[in-house]
Design a protein that fits this description.
The protein is mostly helical. The protein is built from 15 helices and no strands. Helix 3 packs across helix 6, helix 8 packs across helix 11 and helix 9 crosses helix 15. The radius of gyration is 19 Å and the shape is globular. The two termini are 37 Å apart.
């Protein structure tokens, strides 16, 4: 996968020819494996009380890793990779956790028997996961800084508030929270590998405006797309990618958008 890989943006066709697909994994199977492991990252991260920013960074590392490796690669346990990504992200985002704490919580979430930190079994698991962490570093090209949509989302909403008359502080908070939940859920997909954070933030706001039944797009008219800074084609493609999650899981997108994923520990405050 070569095109624009320096910026970690891939064409859909490239992602559909991933190492896993070339290894015989179907696109549906790969999508499900990504969603399951991204949920694992989120659940471990929340139990460790890590910020949403850290969880998001770990998830992006995970998605990038599997642009270089197959889910069928026998070298990697599919549970070790999420744990390694989260351990690495906690250090990068400056909220490090001790390895034994990360492993203890991970085993609780995975419903495995805890390991004595002084045991040979613990030392073996630690050695293995730290080895995976090094491979995650290599797969990410040692490019550990990740830009996320969150700050862009908040700043765009503030800009909308200054332009649209009658758009209250409460309206803005509802719009931002709903869009924030869509951004969080988008992490279960490969959208972070296909689009830049600006586009994902804009599409999440666009989708949020629809689901809270806001008339913002109508009030803004042609300036709506200008403020979002993203083409209508990209807005629609990203929106469909997010909505597909709910259709796959049999959930109501409206309920999820309004009630949200588990409450985010926000890297910035609206």
């Amino acid at each position: 996968m070569a095109s624009q890989s320096s910026e970690w943006v891939f064409m859909r066709e490239e992602l559909e020819n991933s190492p896993s697909v070339r290894d015989g994994v179907t696109l549906d199977e790969e999508r499900n494996l990504r969603q399951q492991r991204c949920t694992l990252i989120r659940n471990i991260g929340k139990k460790l009380q890590l910020s949403q920013l850290t969880i998001a960074t770990a998830t992006v590392y995970f998605h990038r890793f599997y642009t270089r490796h197959s889910f069928r690669d026998p070298k990697y346990s599919q549970d070790d990779v999420p744990i390694a990504c989260l351990f690495l992200a906690s250090k990068v985002e400056e909220c490090p956790k001790r390895f034994k704490e990360v492993l203890k919580v991970a085993f609780e979430v995975l419903q495995r028997q805890p390991l004595d930190p002084e045991s040979d079994a613990f030392r073996e698991v630690k050695k293995r996961i730290l080895g995976v962490e090094m491979d995650v570093l290599h797969a990410n090209g040692f490019m550990l800084h990740v830009d996320h949509p969150y700050t862009i989302l908040v700043n765009t909403a503030k800009r909308i508030k200054t332009v649209v008359s009658g758009f209250s502080e409460a309206d803005m908070k509802t719009l931002v929270q709903t869009a924030w939940n869509f951004v969080n859920d988008s992490l279960q997909t490969t959208l972070c590998l296909q689009f830049k954070p600006q586009a994902i933030a804009s599409a999440s706001l666009h989708l949020a405006a629809k689901y809270i039944r806001s008339d913002l797009p109508q009030k803004c008219g042609d300036s709506w797309l200008t403020m979002l800074g993203t083409s209508l084609l990209d807005l629609e493609e990203i929106s469909h990618g997010i909505l597909d999650i709910y259709q796959t899981n049999g959930a109501s997108a409206t309920d999820i958008a309004l009630q949200g994923s588990p409450s985010p520990n926000r890297p910035s405050t609206p």
